Amino acid sequence: MNSGRSQAYEALIDVSALDLGTVEKRDGFIRIGANLRFQDVFEHPLCPELLRAGFKQIVNRNVRNMATVAGSIAMKSPCSNVIAALMTLHAEVETADANGRRERVSLESFVNTSSEGLLITAVYIPEEWTGLHCSTRRYSRSQNDISIVLADVALEAADGKITRVSAVAGGVAPRVVRLVSLEAALLGQALPDAEAVGDLVKKDIAAISDFRGSAEFKAYMAGQLIDWCLHMAVDGAECCACGCEHKG
Ligand SMILES: Cc1cc2nc3c(=O)[nH]c(=O)nc-3n(C[C@H](O)[C@H](O)[C@H](O)COP(=O)(O)OP(=O)(O)OC[C@H]3O[C@@H](n4cnc5c(N)ncnc54)[C@H](O)[C@@H]3O)c2cc1C
Question: How many A from CA of 77 to the centre of ligand 1?
Fold first, then answer.
């Protein structure tokens, strides 16, 4: 803005003092007030494990102490660890327009449509998705760098077959992508080999080349990371089913 190259604004609104609530259970959902900072959600006992793991991947605590859930969602970054975790958990975004009209849409729909003029007020995570076995992995140039490619998985498995699954890839396309063909292909099946997983992931993502890497590289990495996450989550699910104390 200072350079004069950005769009001209008539007004700037500081939303940081708005009280949009805390983290709480509400009607089968975990509701997260949109103004909360990452670290506050991270430390809350109701924070789902996958989201906590996503926060841990974010460069450092200084950023986690400043960045808000709403700011992260509004930016719609394809590399957002927070969007990836929330989308895997089937989160919904609540917004308010200038007339105070509230609306709730899936996060997937929110990041793929225009949200101009909307205030994000809360995120709702269905509790039915929070107890699943989950895993996340990212590829970045260094521990302290934003992800280049990332993957998140949540699933249930019984007798070696996947009975419920949600999978998401980030950094590969203009937005974080739900891997719907992969999810459909995995249901009721044992885990296929890494090559088959990679082929299914490629179908879903239509990878793009940008300064972070070529489309081929991103598609390959997304397949590898998703395959790794699937194995971690399935191993956890199978292991917990045997009654031991391991928590995938
Ligand atoms: C050095 C650095 C490293 C980072 N690394 C990572 C990383 O590894 N992984 C990752 O996921 N993220 C990373 N981020 C991004 C960071 O996590 C935040 O998501 C991002 O900076 C947004 O910050 P903010 O919440 O202060 O929002 P702001 O910068 O204040 O706002 C961002 C946008 O959101 C809009 N906005 C804010 N609140 C609302 C609201 N209530 N309703 C509607 N729109 C709103 C603003 O208008 C603006 O357009 C990094 C950021 C930095 C600076």
Answer: 9
